[in-house]
Amino acid sequence: MRDYNMDNFGYANLANNDDDVSLPKAATNSIQKVSMLPLVFLIFYEVSGGPFGAEGSVNAAGPLLALLGFIIFPFIWCIPEALITAEMSTMFPINGGFVVWVSSALGPFWGFQVGWMKWLCGVIDNALYPVLFLDYLKSAIPVLATGLPRVASILILTLLLTYLNYRGLTIVGWTAVFMGVFSMLPFAVMSLVSIPQLEPSRWLVMDLGNVNWNLYLNTLFWNLNYWDSVSTLAGEVANPKQTLPKALSYAVIFVALSNFLPLLSGTGAIPLDRELWTDGYLADVAKAIGGGWLRLWVQVAAATSNMGMFLAEMSSDSFQLLGMAELGMLPEIFAKRSRYGTPMLGILFSASGVLLLSGLSFQEIVAAENLLYCGGMVLEFIAFVRMRMKYPAASRPYKIPVGTVGSVLMCVPPFVLICSVVVLSTLKVALVSFVMVTIGFLMKPFLNYIDRKRWIKFSDSSYLAEFHKENLKFEESLLR
Known about the structure:
Elements: H1 36-47, H2 55-91, H3 98-106, H4 108-137, H5 147-166, H6 169-194, H7 213-223, H8 240-269, H9 281-290, H10 292-326, H11 344-357, H12 362-390, H13 404-423, H14 427-452, H15 463-479
Helix pairs in contact: 1-6, 1-8, 1-10, 2-7, 2-8, 2-13, 3-4, 3-12, 4-10, 4-11, 4-12, 4-14, 5-10, 5-11, 6-8, 6-10, 7-12, 9-10, 10-11, 12-13, 12-14
């Protein structure tokens, strides 16, 4: 991994107000870009995909805290993360996203670490979706609960969705639109059908002495995070400086409502039994509210939603690896694209990780993923504040309307939440996460070594060197 230089990257004049930022060659070819509507649904699936998996919040804390969580959490986590993603993605509209931000602010070592942690999170996250897919279908098709049929189903599903990713991001985006509309329709129907059955007193049930805070926070965190994932696709978006901020704002509203309304109708329409609120229980809630037809619709919608989340997450993960390779952080082979413009090796690596991890339980996967994700987000928050301080005059096509102090204060609530997730994590999850982080710390110097030995070819190009050089020139001109 060579030091950043300017051999093959275009002029990145981010210090002025020019909207024409030259991008890496791989990002400026004739591949069709992603437009607004597909991008909104890609973000929706990267973050949430609907209320599937949100049942654990009721199991952990009861209806009142579950509903309050999905009201308050967007303000202390979703909106700050989405705003930071909008500002930084328009500042660096290339593939690699948060890797580029952190590298520019803190150096390539920490950029690699955030890339490693976030890629692991993405692969771990994707391992959930075959599990959730089968959890929702096993009540209708019991043979999928265990054994060879379950293993075969996971393998077939993974291969099918991996192929769709290979065929191109535009196909993935429009597939996400179709899947998103279809998977949310039954919950709109359930909300309407439930109105005559609602008893508002059921929403107020709370027992603070019987709250599983670890499960509660992990469930909220898993259902409402990953807003930064879209940044790794910035180089594939049409007019990213305008499209990304708008798409993120629409997606925040969509995600919040898609989680809150089904829980509102479910907890208000049927008697509470917290022990039943586990993965897949919303299908049973739908049956109690509307009958067997609605239950079947929710089950099919859940399966559809999990396929959508898989597609979106794999796209983000694979393009992240492509971006890291274009920056010289990974071997150049990771930057190779298929004839459809997709990163072949990144897709294969992500699919392999999914198959290896898909045997874990839902709760184990969520807890391990969230802890790693927290580490990556801390680096992103630090990078955001440092870029505000280090390059105040750099061009920001979308800029959060706060100063340096405001940018620090905006990061405080999500940082407190991160600390809570870390403190409440189990020893097993903490140890596994520590091992994964340690591997990342060792991998960076190892890749540096094999690059120096020329065992594997790394890219010589870097977008970041131009950014630093042009900002230095701009700052020097202010002093003249």
